[in-house]
Amino acid sequence: MPSLIQLKGEITLQNLESFFSQLQPCLSEAGEVVLSCRDLEFLDTAAFQLLVSFKKSLGKRALLFQEVPAQVRETATLLGLNTFFGLGG
């Protein structure tokens, strides 16, 4: 069964620890991890770095993104991470 995490607002260096605490339990669970981004406004580079590490820690398990806002897609593209995260572009 997939783990679903709802992302909201801005995720930046200032609240990265809280974001990590949302992700951490998924490391010990089975199945894919789905990030619902409908209410997400912004991810900074620190948040993207955490997601890169998190995705690598999942091994063969999938990290999926749903309803990603254009601004977040654009940031991923600027960082060269759109393909890594399967965000198109």
Strand line-up across the major sheet:
1-2-3
Give the distance, in angstroms, between the N- and C-terminal Cα atoms: 29 Å
Please provide the count of β strands: 3
Counting DSSP H or I runs of 4 or more residues, the number of helices is 3
Helix content: 25-40%
Rg calculated over all Cα atoms:
12 Å
Mean pLDDT: 95
The shape is globular
How large is the share of residues in beta strands?
25-35%
Q: Uncertain segments of ≥5 residues (pLDDT<50)?
A: none
Query: Biggest sheet: strands, sense, closure?
Result: 3 strands, parallel
- Helix and strand element order: EHEHEH
- Structural category is alpha/beta
What features would you describe in this structure?
The chain has 89 residues and is an alpha/beta fold. The protein is 34% helix and 27% strand. It contains 3 helices and 3 strands. It has helices at 16-23, 45-57, 70-78; strands at residues 3-11, 33-43, 63-66. A 3-stranded parallel sheet has the order 1-2-3. β2 (33-43), α2 and β3 form a beta-alpha-beta unit. α1 (16-23) runs parallel beside α2 (45-57). The protein is globular, with a radius of gyration of 12 Å. The chain starts with a strand and ends in an 11-residue tail after the last helix.
Question: What keywords describe this structure?
Answer:
alpha/beta; 89 residues; globular; 3 strands; 3-stranded parallel beta sheet
